[in-house]
Design a protein that fits this description.
The chain has 318 residues and is α+β, with helices and mostly antiparallel strands. The protein is built from 9 helices and 13 strands. The chain has helices at 12-23, 28-41, 86-93, 104-113, 124-140, 204-210, 212-221, 226-245, 301-312; strands at 3-7, 62-68, 74-80, 101-103, 151-156, 162-168, 189-192, 196-202, 251-257, 262-266, 271-277, 280-290, 293-298. Helix 7 packs across helix 8 (226-245). Bound molecules: N-hydroxy-L-asparagine.
Amino acid sequence: MWGIIATWRMAAEGVGKAAEILKNGGDAGDAIETAVKEVEDFPYYKSVGYGGLPNEEMEVELDAAYMDGDTLDIGAVAAIRDFANPVSIARRLSKEKVNNLLVGEGAEKFAHKEGFERKNMLTDRAKIHYRNRVKEITAQEIKPYAGHDTVGMVCLDEKGKMTSATSTSGLFMKKKGRVGDSPISGSGFYVDSKVGGASATGLGEDVMKGCVSYEIVRLMRDGLHPQEACEKAVAMFDRELKERRGQAGDMSLIAMNNKGEWGVATNIEGFSFAVATENQEPIVYLTKCVDGKCIHEPASQEWLDDYMRTRMAPLEEK
Ligand code: SD4
């Protein structure tokens, strides 16, 4: 059995490419890296890789991670600038004995020495978003943290190897040096080939409070189906945060176990994800969760077309 699951509709093309690799007996590491790179390279996604929205200082700082569920090797970069594919740098770091999580300038030096492709990740489109947002903020003091869609994936290959990976530009208008959950083991991602894996998208500051990806893997280890594990972990932690703090940030989790069974839960409306397995052609679903129970419906062609149309619509300077 093979399979791959990923956050948001934007991962669909990457999931399709990964499915081809997995179908032909390919490796879960290669498949997931290919899938994440596809999202990183697409300029119209505002929250991952090239075209990602910048921080307060108009610099694109990226976070990414890679984990191998056989060896439990982890590699990650945080607040790295000017490299095309942070996920590949993370995967490379996962092979080191120490120095597995590098930040900022140190991560950039490592990537440069290792010959990774340098790229100015700030697009003209992202600059327009930035200037528009600055105008909005000064006009009406709105909150800057909107529009964050991290890509997070879990993958299983025919040999039973599992991997997980994430990539994000984090929160739009974040402080320079801010790091979210995505490169943090147990929070943005976790995978153990003996059990399964999970990955998160949402408000990193809150996801990290509950190590939610690890919690889902733990529940699967206790015997829960990935769907039950996601529902339980998200509903419980959402409740916990609301009780203690009065509110809970956005949180959407995807998971797959080592049988290729998968699950998804969210505390927001309109969460989409992409999945493919040996028994399931690549497909995009929309998830709705009410009282801790989630239903996944295939996205309609109209919804899919509209998604692309809005992402690629001409952008006016306000
Ligand atoms: C972060 N979790 O940096 C990321 C942002 C995100 O969907 O997932 N957005 O906090």
